[in-house]
Amino acid sequence: MNSDGLMAFDSMKLRGGGGPPPSLADPIKAVAVFSMLKLPWYLGIFKTPDHGLETGVSLSFTGMRGFQLTSHPQFFLAPHVMAGSWLLWQYANRLQKGLIGTCDRSTFVWFAAATLFGLHVLPERAGVPNRQIPGTNQFAVFLLWAGSATGFYGLAKGASSLVSFGTHLTFAPLFLAPAMDLVSALGFTIARIFTGKWPVPDPEKMPRNPDGYSGKFCPFAALDAALTRWWNHHNAR
Questions:
Q1: Cα–Cα distances in Å, from 209 out to 8, 142, 190, 206?
Q2: How confident is the model at residue 81 (pLDDT cuts 50, 70, 90)?
């Protein structure tokens, strides 16, 4: 490579042409992987603990407890964690490659998936973390849709700054829930160190979310209700 080529390469690195430092994207990918660790319990591959499914189920082998999950494990929690983790992973990839704000088809797909993810969350809005902080899920869905709408508008106008802003705004609530799980796990661990026992935030099994998938709120709810009836009928044989 001649001197001009070396100067151009160094200039690209200084401008960030090679993408942000990996450390900015790697923690996001780690959070996505942490979320996916719960999948075997949600799909019934691993046995549900006697106290039921909780937010810290992937760490239950340590004795850690968490907040009770009242949503259907196969029909809500499993697709929820898969879709959320995929959205986080794609955001991290684009961040790492310096593609945030790019007006292309993959960006459109990401915003479309985030929009559907918000619609998927609405029927279960009364669950975690709304029991801890009322209105959290509704606010998260609002941010998802506001960010996606901004991104779609930016794509239509070819405005990369709007696409970039919409992408970051959409990412915020996607990252919030699994980040809160990690913070809770850290808090429970600290309590365990100082008190000698794990805290039990929800001491009794909680009933399935009564405001959840009754079939009244959206097509996802109706589909889930139909699948639940089929599942119960199949298991009753």
A1: 58, 21, 30, 8
A2: very high
